[in-house]
TrEMBL record:
GO terms for cellular component: nucleus. Belongs to the BCP1 family. Its main location: nucleus. It is found in: Nucleus. Residues 1-20, 196-225 are annotated as: Disordered. Involved in nuclear export, actin cytoskeleton organization and vesicular transport. Keywords: Nucleus, Protein transport, Transport. This is Protein BCP1. Pfam families: BCCIP (PF13862). GO terms for biological process: protein transport.
Length: 286
């Protein structure tokens, strides 16, 4: 049984041989489920590997998947073929203080501090939050959010609303979800000026590079895989893009994307505001 009602969506499917005016629509019902230890472990590992790319092996994704599945009452997966199928998307939050000795959370905390070294103000804030004094009320919630490339962003307002509700229900039951801040780890890709010019050029759609639904660049040809990042950044205390530690140099004229990571820190008090902003920005298809 789905944890919430299904949400209909109409993602557009492009064919290499079709003009933009000849797109077809497919009506899909997405169902939302609690994370399930018996069926979701391998899919969560795949999504974590997709999110962290070459750095995944540094971050103990096996332990991360186990930890996500150990708290099934907080977090949501999205599926199309019932509970036993693989999730197409996941959104959850993990308490980085409560789980600070978990190998994955420990590695992720060190990773965040290392990557934020390019922005001293961000690093100082993280240092204070991730190494609090005894009795400090500051707890950081690590937001784990990833999905398959073609999943429409319209599922995200619903997922963030459910996350906000579940955090409140957990607090009502005295569970350790009283966060002061949320840390979102996302990912980006970069296009060279030549690639951007080609992408925006007059060539027929079927002849253009098949990129992953590029969003408006933030600066210097940087695009987000997650369109909702733009809305999260509006309420953020800090945000930065970084290079993966284990990324391979991209050779000139090589295929593929020049990818990197993104970290966003925002106050927990603005989570409900974010839900409202996402609902306005990405309403369900009519």
């Amino acid at each position: 049984m789905a944890k919430r009602k299904s949400l209909a969506a109409d993602p557009e499917l492009d064919s290499d041989n079709e003009d933009a005016s000849e797109r077809s629509l497919v009506d899909v019902d997405f169902e939302f489920f609690d994370p399930h230890p018996d069926v979701d472990y391998l899919a969560l590992k795949r999504l974590a590997n997709q999110l962290f790319q070459g750095d995944a092996e540094l971050l103990h994704v096996n332990d991360l998947a186990d930890l996500i599945l150990s708290q099934p009452l907080v977090g949501t997966t999205v599926k199309c073929d019932g509970r036993e199928s693989d999730p197409y998307a996941v959104l959850t939050v993990l308490n980085m203080q409560v789980h600070q000795n978990n190998p994955s959370i420990k590695a992720l905390a060190e990773y965040a501090l290392t990557k934020s070294s390019t922005t001293p103000a961000f690093q100082d804030t993280l240092q204070t939050l991730l190494n609090p004094a005894a009795g400090s009320p500051n707890h950081v919630g690590l937001v784990f959010s990833e999905r398959l490339i073609n999943m429409p962003v319209q599922v995200m307002p619903h997922m963030y609303r459910m996350l906000a509700d579940e955090i409140q229900w957990a607090l009502d039951d005295n569970e350790p979800y009283n966060f002061s801040h949320f840390l979102v780890i996302s990912r980006i890709y970069r296009l060279s000026p030549e690639e951007e010019a080609e992408l925006q050029g007059p060539a027929p759609r079927s002849k253009r590079p098949k990129q992953s639904a590029p969003q408006k660049p933030s600066s210097g040809g940087v695009y987000s895989f997650h369109p909702e990042d733009e809305q999260i950044q509006k309420i953020a205390l800090h945000s930065l893009d970084y290079n993966f530690t284990n990324s391979q140099p991209r050779e000139e004229n090589a295929f593929g994307l020049d990818m990197g990571g993104r970290m966003i820190l925002f106050p927990a008090t603005r989570l409900r505001e974010l839900v409202s902003v996402l609902q306005d920005a990405y309403p369900p298809p009519s």
